[in-house]
Design brief:
Layout lengths: L13 E6 L2 E5 L6 H12 L18 E6 L2 E5 L2 E5 L1 E2 L4 E2 L5 H13 L9 E7 L5 E4 L11 E7 L2 E5 L9 E5 L4 E4 L8 E3 L15 E7 L4
Antiparallel strand pairs: 1-2, 2-13, 3-8, 4-5, 6-7, 8-15, 9-14, 10-13, 10-15, 11-12, 11-14
Bound molecules: N-[(3-hydroxypyridin-2-yl)carbonyl]glycine and fe (iii) ion.
N-[(3-hydroxypyridin-2-yl)carbonyl]glycine binds next to β10, β14 and β15.
Amino acid sequence: MQSSLDLFAPPTPESIAIAPDAWLLKGFAHAQADDLLAQIGQIEQQTAFRHQVTPGGHAMSSAQCSCGTYGWVTDKRGYRYTTEDPLTDKPWPAMPASFRELAVRAAAEVGFEGFEPQSCLINRYQTGAGMGLHQDKDEQDLGAPIVSVTLGAPITFLFGGLLRTDKPSRWLLEHGDVVVWGGVSRLYFHGVAPLGKRASHAATGAVRYNLTFRRVVG
Ligand code: MD6
Ligand code: FE
């Protein structure tokens, strides 16, 4: 008996081009999502989510921590990467192998072979938290892509252009979705709309996590 239609095969993840050299991989991390959330719980025991302060003196609405060789830090002195967590004065928690493998696989899926992330910033959004339009430009290595993973409650992602005034397109990011971008759009402005009052997911309740994998130095 043979059939070309396997009703039990998982759906092939859809890859949607959202800008030049930028893709939304729907559900790409869905099968690993429980493991990723468990790893966040482990990381949280070695560091802590904190509302960092921008150079302008505003506390960010998302709470953040990092894992990997470098962590992203902001305070009144500016934005930068550090090898130590300023809360513990110890190195950031190690990046779990499952995090790295997912990021490498997602990057390769859209043609960025050999991506080796050095940093994973973990953002935690609660109701009303968002992130205004910004560029990711604190990395020395702008040749490498960025891989971003959504876990938990859905949020609206805004993807603009090279100018802050470019009108952003809007994309719903759901549990297990992965965004990969680099190349032409590496410095495009982007952000997320405030997490909606009714946004929730069985695995996290009214919380959304975002993992952002980056290469920091060449
Ligand atoms: C977020 N993400 O999704 C915020 N930056 O919560 C980002 O700022 C971001 O998703 C660079 C690349 C991918 C991203
Ligand atoms: Fe960003």
